[in-house]
TrEMBL record:
Pfam families attached to this UniProt entry: MucB_RseB (PF03888)
SUPFAM superfamilies: Prokaryotic lipoproteins and lipoprotein localization factors
Native species: Micromonospora aurantiaca (nom. illeg.)
Taxonomic path: Bacteria, Bacillati, Actinomycetota, Actinomycetes, Micromonosporales
Full protein name: MucB/RseB N-terminal domain-containing protein
Residue span of region Disordered: 243-281
């Protein structure tokens, strides 16, 4: 049976695709400031890395804009509708988010669009999700002995953490131009892969000249002059937000669901059980910027994976889009190929997703293993 008929593909394509977009590179960002570059005292790459390592963030609030131009078909938005995860659409198009940070156990993120708002809040052990369109909310109590952060889309700082993990002999680190981001002066740290097989040309991180916090992160694809994926503050305030910002007060008429043990709240206020949260078998091939992720998502020959929900007609539309992807084959087998500016994804007919910031030829090599 074709991999396109395996429901697990629909559930895992977007997370895997979004994941490889930050392997060694993080998210990308465009330029949100105009005018002359600010005059700042010279800083070496080593000094900027030390500034970043020793920076301390007690509080923050602001507006973040994400922009993605990955050269892909409209799969991400469709997958979000088909799986009940509207936040999955953040890997395509332009999105505005409001963020608040009050410490390790106090965070809030709000995704605002023309049809409503979705919030994720963490206040101590309490995690809430809320969907204004459906007027639904889910509450989860975190275990006292296993503190964790709420899962939210990357801010510039989150993306920079992942990008900086790539600094090793495979990466050249230099200082770029100064910039003005969200009205603040910033230095620019530039990461350049040494391995020419990577589709990533550069990762650029703009650091606040005073607070040393990432304000903007930018990834350029090989051969491209404009960023392929963007995330940056357009407004930022480094004062600690008031405690009320992290308290969820259910609006009138809201349907509240309490997540029990083994469940987690979904971004749209929906519940997921353990089966939904199971991750496929995942391994990596290669190192550095040319790392390839291989995920086993089910037995395509037996039609593994859950069947599409009856109330999710967009799942059929998504399946059709995936089915329109080019067919490819070789001594590794057969499947479908999704290729963009920054990465390639191979969906094999034997139930694997193989992805990386590399050319399709690298994926075919990994598929032989």
């Amino acid at each position: 049976m074709s991999v396109m008929k395996n429901r697990a593909v629909l559930r895992w394509l977007v997370p895997v695709t979004a994941g490889v977009a930050v392997i060694g590179g993080g998210a990308a960002v465009g330029t949100f400031a105009a005018g002359a570059d600010p005059a700042l005292p010279p800083r070496s790459a080593a000094q900027l890395l030390e500034d970043l390592r020793t920076s301390r963030l007690d509080g923050l609030s602001g507006t973040v804009v994400q922009r993605a131009d990955l050269g892909l078909p409209p799969i991400a938005a469709l997958a979000g509708q088909a799986t009940g995860n509207d936040l999955a659409g953040l890997v395509s198009g332009t999105h505005t988010l409001r963020v608040w940070y009050g410490g390790e156990d106090r965070q809030r993120l709000a995704l605002v669009d023309t049809l409503g708002e979705q919030d994720i809040l963490r206040n101590g052990r309490d995690v809430w999700t809320w969907n204004s369109r459906e007027n639904t909310a889910t509450h989860r109590k975190l275990p006292a002995d296993a503190p964790e952060r709420a899962t939210v889309p990357a801010t510039p700082a989150d993306a920079a953490d992942r990008a900086l993990e790539a600094i090793d002999p495979t990466t050249a680190v230099t200082v770029g131009r100064t910039a003005t981001v969200a009205g603040r002066d910033a230095y620019e740290l530039v990461l350049t892969p040494r391995d020419k097989a990577s589709l990533v040309h550069q990762v650029r991180i703009a650091l606040d000249a005073k607070e040393h916090v990432p304000l903007r992160l930018q990834v350029l694809a090989d051969g491209q002059d404009e960023p392929a994926f963007q995330v940056a503050f357009t407004q930022v305030d480094f004062r600690t937000p008031e405690a009320d910002q992290f308290r969820f007060n259910p609006p009138p008429g809201v349907k509240v669901t309490e997540a029990t043990e083994g469940e987690r709240p979904g971004p749209a206020g929906k519940r997921f059980d353990k089966k939904d949260a199971e991750k496929p078998d995942v391994r990596t091939v290669g190192t550095g910027w040319t790392t390839v992720v291989v995920a086993k998502i089910g037995d395509a020959a037996t039609g593994g994976g859950a069947k599409p929900r009856a109330d999710a007609p967009d799942a059929q539309m998504l399946g059709q889009v995936l089915g329109d992807l080019p067919k490819v084959s070789g001594d590794w087998g057969s499947g479908r190929l999704l290729s963009g500016k920054l990465f390639s994804v191979l969906l094999t007919d034997d139930g694997r997703v193989i992805a990386g910031l590399v050319t399709p030829e690298r994926l075919y090599e990994a598929a032989k293993g």
